[in-house]
Amino acid sequence: MQVVVVGLGYVGSVCSACLASRGHQVVGVDTSTYKVDCIERGESPIVEKDLGELIAAARREGRLSATTDIARAMPGADVVLVCVGTPSREDGSLNLDHVKRACAEVGSALASTGKFTTIVMRSTMLPGSVLDELTPVIEQASGGKAGDKFGVAYNPEFLREGTAVDDFNNADYTIIGAGCERAGESLKAVYEGVGGELIVTSIPTAEMLKYVNNSFHALKVAFANEVGRVCKKEGVDSHAVMKLMVRDTKLNLSPYYLSPGFAFGGSCLPKDVRAIVSRSRHHNLELPVLQNIIRSNDVHVEDAIHLIEKFKMRKLGFLGLSFKAGTDDLRESPILRVIGTLVGKGYAVLLHDPNIDMERVLGANRRFVEDEVPYLPERLRADLREVVESSEVIVVGNRSAAYREIGGMLRKGQVLVDLVAGVDRRTVVNGEYHGLAW
Ligand SMILES: NC(=O)c1ccc[n+]([C@@H]2O[C@H](COP(=O)([O-])OP(=O)(O)OC[C@H]3O[C@@H](n4cnc5c(N)ncnc54)[C@H](O)[C@@H]3O)[C@@H](O)[C@H]2O)c1
Predict the structure, then answer these.
(1) Nearest Cα residue to 127 out of 149, 94, 80, 166
(2) Does the pLDDT value for residue 331 go beyond 90?
(3) What does the angle CA 373 – CA 379 – CA 384 come to, to the nearest 5 degrees?
(4) 32 CB under 6 A from ligand 1?
(5) How far does CA 5 lie from the centroid of its chain?
(6) Whether 268 is catalytic
(7) What is the mean pLDDT of residues 103-110?
(8) pTM
């Protein structure tokens, strides 16, 4: 493939060298004559392990060159990778000025070529950037339409400085957000043979993924450091704790708990987070991540209440009362806070849960019902159909299998609010489906 790489910084120079080493013909473009001259001399413009050797070899073998002139690089290009900087503005917002300029230059150069070229953003940018902000710039400059004269794609870069060449060659996956099939196919050809699975998805998903990955990495660092600060005060070896923590690949380092759903609850998570936060306050420690977990969970509950109230319908049916399916433990079930608030506001509320039978609710759970949710027994119904048929808004509050295909029971005009991503949306033929955070 003929590949043009615009921007020869950390991302661009690693991409250029690695793609050239895989047999592609690469031309790098940068406004900096220093960086262009480095590449032309066969040297790396940045300090990065193994990069100098790769660039020197690619130069020797005639597969890599560089220029400051995009128009000179473009003729014959199959794919253009845009890797220029996307710095923060003073208010923290994303500055796309460099990318817009690069896209305008690429677009102008495209105006005089007849070849279908795929323009791929690799710089980090928020959802909507490629389709709403950059594609129009290219269309205007080239006089052509995306999907017709050229293709657009977003291909996030996940390399880490210091191990960038290894990360490029041994990525876990390569994500291709493709604007059209042809764009996806060209990028697949560019990455053929690079380690990891090639996954084609939508452009906004790929754009968002980059931010989610980096936010999660930042959260991991902040979390581990806060654990370290509490451990030090407690005289506990923080490294020993975290080494054991990461060995649990069922609940800790795993997809578990990482799918958007409803707030956490139950008899352990809220109580234990509160206890460690209380202990940290006793030590006068400031731990913004740990200390705000309960607040974040509360906001999620408040959002659910707002979503349900938005429909301005007074008859509500709640399906699933325990904090998760398969238990009758009602303690600290977050849906009960939603129900309690709406009962207090005078909504007509009916309830259903296959695991809750008031006759059999015993012990701490019974006391909890009497003290905290006295409205529950008179509103609970054993007949699911009765609850669904009597309600205008039906709220699913846990992932019980009984509710998976509940959409099929809805009539026109009814609203289904799914707080747990537990309903098969395809079953909702009549009525409306609304997810809490999806
Ligand atoms: N550095 C990383 O580890 C890393 C990792 C993943 C993603 N990213 C993202 O990739 C993007 C690039 O990051 P970087 O660290 O390589 O940036 P960088 O600042 O090192 O390099 C950007 C290069 O683009 C050049 N440039 C700017 N405007 C240009 C134009 N109109 N035409 C040609 N060249 C132009 C600059 O001269 C510079 O050499 C950013 O969006 C960044 O967030 C960076």
Answers:
(1) 94
(2) no
(3) 125
(4) yes
(5) 26
(6) yes
(7) 97
(8) 0.94
